[in-house]
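Dear colleague,

Thank you for sharing your sequence with our group. We've completed the structure prediction you requested, and as agreed, I am returning the results in plain text so they can be pasted directly into your records. Please verify that the sequence below matches your submission; if there's any discrepancy, let me know and we will rerun it promptly.
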Amino acid sequence: NNVNNLGNVERQEVLTLRHPELVKVQVAMVKKIVTELNGFDNLYYEICNEPYFGGVTLEWQAHIAGVIAETEKTLPKRHLIAQNIANGSRKIENPNPLVSIFNFHYSRPPESVAMNYGLNKAIGNNETGFDGMEDATYRIQGWEFLLAGGALYNNLDYSFVAGSEGGTFQYPPAQPGGGSTRLRQHLRNLHDFMDRISFIHMKPDRSILAGGLPENDSFQALVEPGKSYAVYIHHGRVVKDARPRYQVDATPHHLALELQLPAGTYHMMWVNPKSANVEKSGTLRHPGGKATLDSPEYTEDIALRLTAN
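Please find the predicted structure tokens below.
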């Protein structure tokens, strides 16, 4: 496909700095894209998708990040730059200061957030899939990642194809991933849940869990101590050699959840991530220490919001 006869190199060397004439063309393309799109505020620039496959060098990625930043110096708007780090989770060493978003793929459970939270940069899970077709799988992965302190989430969605640009394609049962109108509503519920908490003032803190969580269940919490708490509990996990790999327990659950809370009066809301309905609410007058909160009966996952009055 090299119709312009540029960069007659091995494919593993295309995204490196070893061939100046090819890099010159790449830089010109990046400058053109950045200049033409400068007026839009609904985008960020990711340097390269999955650079850890195919020989993409860190030096080339740093060079492209520099081109983006330098080009925008003379333009009205600035955009965030993202770098795709790894599949799964990994601690980032020597982060590029020009990069504001560090993205991972298939980071479930969301260990990438805890490993890199100290960077004070946005940590994303901007691709997941290949875990079966069930909506519950990808709803759980999205909710868990953001309630663990992650900044963004998206999944491969097989309901978008040519001719079904609205995401309504009914894919056959042999698909390796999922996606549906219903799943996107579940993720909209996540968006709305996050909008209702002061997440910019909150930090992930799983240490507030004092008991009441069965083995193999998962717990995440964002906390502004004494003011606001957002908790997410689910019953999904990666199971080695299972098909699909991600398994969700759909049996009914009820929790007597124990949390360490400072003294205060809290408004309590148990939220269904599937419907966004408030399944149970009330007032907690707490003297401080361990508080036991009874959940409604639910399946697959549930969220809890506590706000000090």
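Summary note from our side: The chain has a mean pLDDT of 96.

Kind regards,
the structure core
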